[in-house]
């Protein structure tokens, strides 16, 4: 198999960024649907959501039986190489 067509398991973005991208597209997405879309467990999604909420990246509110997530798009990316950019810039590129 040519080197360029071999499948690998790594991706350019983290599961945290995948959660953010999904919630920007659909702020009422269920944990089960996030897990399926991203390819991780529901427990992993819940851990990521808790971390993002603790850091101020997202705010969760209850609407009826569903959660609604508001992403702080002005939140700066965390790594020093990308800290001059915000989530707004990242999600705009990936929508």
Give the low-confidence spans. none
- The radius of gyration computed from the alpha-carbon positions, rounded to a whole number of angstroms, is 15 Å
* String of helices and strands: HHHEEH
Structural class of the helices, strands and pairings?
alpha+beta
Describe this entry's structure for a reader.
With 95 residues, the protein is an alpha+beta fold. The protein has 4 helices and 2 strands. The chain has helices at 15-25, 31-38, 42-54, 87-94; strands at residues 58-63, 66-71. The protein has a two-stranded antiparallel sheet with strand order 1-2.
What labels describe this entry?
95 residues; 4 helices; alpha+beta
What's the topology here?
Elements: H1 15-25, H2 31-38, H3 42-54, E1 58-63, E2 66-71, H4 87-94
Antiparallel strand pairs: 1-2
Task: Summarize the entry for a quick read.
The protein is α+β, with helices and mostly antiparallel strands. It has helices spanning 15-25, 31-38, 42-54, 87-94, and strands spanning 58-63, 66-71. Strands 1-2 form a two-stranded antiparallel ribbon.
């Amino acid at each position: 198999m040519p080197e360029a067509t071999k499948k690998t398991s790594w991706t350019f973005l983290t599961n945290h960024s995948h959660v953010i991208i999904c919630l920007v597209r659909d702020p009422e997405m269920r944990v089960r649907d996030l897990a399926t879309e991203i390819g991780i467990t529901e427990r992993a999604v819940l851990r990521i959501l808790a971390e993002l909420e603790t850091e101020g990246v997202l705010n969760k509110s209850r609407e009826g039986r569903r959660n609604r997530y508001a992403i702080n798009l002005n939140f700066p990316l965390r790594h020093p190489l990308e800290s001059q950019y915000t989530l707004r810039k990242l999600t705009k590129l990936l929508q």
